[in-house]
Amino acid sequence: MxxxxxxxxxxIVQGVGFRPFVYRMAKKYLINGWVLNxxxxxxxxxxxxxxxxxxxxxxxxxxxxxxAQVKEIELKEVPLQDFDSFExxxxxxxxxxxxxxxxxxLATCDDCAAELFNPNDRRFRxxxxxxxxxxxxxxxIDALPYDRASTSxxxxxxxxxxxxxxxxxxxxxFHAQPDACFECGPxxxxxxxxxxxxxPGEDFPTRGAGDVSSDELPDGWxxxxxxxxxxxxxxxxxxxxxxxxxxVVAVKGLGGFHLVCDARNAEAIARLREGKRRGGKPFAxxxxxxxAARSVCEVTPExxxxxxxxxRPIVLLKKRRGVAFAAGLADKLPExxxxxxxxxVQLLLLHDFARALEQMGVPEPPMLVMTSGNIHDEPIV
Length: 381
Ligand SMILES: [Zn+2]
Ligand SMILES: [Zn+2]
Known about the structure:
The protein is of the alpha+beta class. It contains ten helices and 15 strands. It has helices spanning 18-28, 50-62, 94-98, 110-116, 160-167, 229-244, 266-276, 290-294, 301-307, 344-359; strands at 2-12, 32-38, 41-49, 69-78, 86-88, 188-192, 206-208, 222-226, 249-253, 256-262, 285-286, 297-298, 315-319, 335-339, 368-372. The longest helix is centred in the middle third of the chain and has 16 residues, at 229-244. 37% of the residues are buried.
């Protein structure tokens, strides 16, 4: 029997790929009607075979996108309106959108991480890869409603291929506001002080303060841009060389800079401590994955789950007995603060740092100190 339901879903269901998910499920269960953002969630009108409608509703609660949090699903039987397709509707009611909860920034998802390291993907090693399930949200928003024009992505008009993904309800990047690629999106840059030999090479066009339009560089600083995969990779390679040489590199993450150094190099840690004016407080480290963390710390299943949370918290792990840690990292403490990478730039850094260690014959998984780029007790830069 064909029936119709009005479904109201509450929770974090906007800006997390929930409407395209509803669309895919509607196609799967041969359901017609529509889905629309509402003031406090998402409204769905669904018409279909009653048995399939039941399964559709179960999917909504049980298989929602990773970043979504379904709080409640209200169902109401309504008269049939005989829709002959299912569509995603867009609200033009500003009041509806302005009360929308904005999602927090989300760590790079597994699908994007796989594309990042797939040589056949067009975003292979693109340092700002993201999708509806991951990437920056809160950090890039200037104003509501949340669409590209009111984010810091407004200066990066999408190329044809990104625009096609953005418009396709069956694509993982449907309405992903920060959707970008090497062709149309932001690029890496490396800037260095006059007294630091960080130049990535002779062939690099570098510029100094005064002729850089969007970045204010202090006197004497130089900057190099990685606008292609090759030049972008060269900048990461240079950063890895600096880390291997015991230098401190400031790496822009979501919402601010991290000061980064090799966590196995006591001299580098001392240099970082001096720069940060941070006495004896322990530093947290970033490692590639839970398995890498397990090589130096004990990791319970609950701790492993916490490490992989999309919010990427620092998790205090018990140091493994017999493992020697560099002096100055977290001396005299039984625990070490560990976090996993949250952004594609961090994934690339750890990946390439691991390769550099391999080439130097160091079999240990990379471990980087990642500390917020601020002077002790001052706000994050
Ligand atoms: Zn993703
Ligand atoms: Zn693009």
